[in-house]
């Protein structure tokens, strides 16, 4: 049985909500200060929770139109952050001049997943779920 567009958008909302709660937990409970690129990723992730929730109740197929640009922009920032941390983008190319350096690794999950990697995975999942919702809503009459 194939998932409905509503279920796919709900899945995207769930990923955005867990990501938002995780970011808030790390900064407010664990006192890990976010770098500039982390702030930009939050700028694109946090509104997704509200935008997707508004599109779910009542379900509005056009929510993909409003959420996808946020997911794509956040994905671009997250990938740039991953490339910076991997040394593929020089630090001088990214304007991380104040506060926490963007190349510093403060947190590792399972010994190898950095926060920018987790963010890139979350934005990828949201984008994929939104794309699936868009294409399945074109064929699904509900």
Overview of the molecule:
This protein has 142 residues and is mainly α. It has one domain: Bromodomain-like (Up-down Bundle). It contains four helices and two strands. It has a two-stranded antiparallel sheet. The two termini are 15 Å apart.
* CATH fold title: Bromodomain-like
Which CATH architecture?
Up-down Bundle
Helix and strand composition category: mainly alpha
Rounded radius of gyration (Å): 16 Å
Q: What are the secondary-structure elements, in order, as H or E?
A: HHHEEH
Uncertain runs are none
Rounded mean pLDDT is: 88
* Beta-strand residue percentage: under 5%
Number of strands: 2
Write down the CATH class. Mainly Alpha
Q: What's the structural domain tally?
A: 1
Q: CA-to-CA gap between the ends?
A: 15 Å
**Spatial order of the strands forming the largest sheet:** 1-2
Q: What profile does the largest beta sheet have?
A: 2 strands, antiparallel
Q: Overall 3D geometry?
A: elongated
Give me the number of helical elements.
4
Helix content: 55-70%
Give a short overview.
This protein is mostly helical.
Brief descriptors of the model:
Bromodomain-like, 2 strands, 142 residues, 66% helix, mainly alpha
Topology:
Blueprint: H1 5-29, H2 36-56, H3 63-85, E1 108-109, E2 113-114, H4 115-139
Antiparallel strand pairs: 1-2
Helix pairs in contact: 1-2, 1-4, 2-3, 3-4
């Amino acid at each position: 049985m194939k998932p409905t567009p509503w279920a796919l958008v709900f899945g995207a909302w769930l990923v955005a909500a867990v990501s938002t709660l995780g970011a808030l937990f790390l900064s407010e409970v664990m006192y890990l200060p976010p770098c500039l690129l982390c702030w930009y990723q939050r700028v694109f992730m946090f509104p997704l929770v509200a935008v997707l929730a508004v599109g779910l109740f009542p379900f509005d197929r056009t929510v993909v139109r409003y959420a996808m640009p946020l997911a794509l922009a956040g994905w671009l920032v997250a990938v740039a952050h991953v490339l910076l941390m991997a040394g593929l983008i020089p630090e001088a190319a990214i304007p991380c001049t104040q506060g926490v350096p963007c190349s510093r690794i403060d947190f590792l999950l399972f010994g190898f997943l950095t926060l920018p990697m987790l963010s890139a995975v979350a934005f990828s999942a949201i984008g994929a779920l939104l794309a699936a919702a868009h294409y399945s809503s074109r064929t699904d009459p509900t």
